[in-house]
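Could you join me in thinking about how sequence relates to backbone shape in a protein? We need material for that, and I hope you will provide a protein of your own picking. Label the sequence line and the structure token line clearly, so we can match residues to local backbone shapes. Would you write everything just below, so we can both look at the same thing?
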Amino acid sequence: MNELANMEQKIISEWRQSESGKLERAISWLARQCEEFIRASGDITIQLPHGRLSLRAGKAKVSIVDESAFLQIAKKKGLVRIKPEEKLPDLLKIHEFIWVPDFRSDLLL
């Protein structure tokens, strides 16, 4: 019984991945077409019947693949920021402390 359920889950998972892939490719294609269209027009923004199409300058995304190798080089180049330990009040503990029956005697110590 479990084997049959596992097989069905596998089939559903594969189908979902296949459908997601198709949708992602369609979205990617449409995004490229829209970008090519607006760049060819020379405008930054184009008003459309259901909204607007606009170009925005975005930041380049940075991802670190091998963190240990990066840290060896980054420390030398000054690319690492070290945050000092933060001391913040623990609001949950404070709340629990206040609701202790004779908290006032503890506060007077």
Remarks:
- The chain has a mean pLDDT of 82.
- The first helix runs from residue 2 to 41.
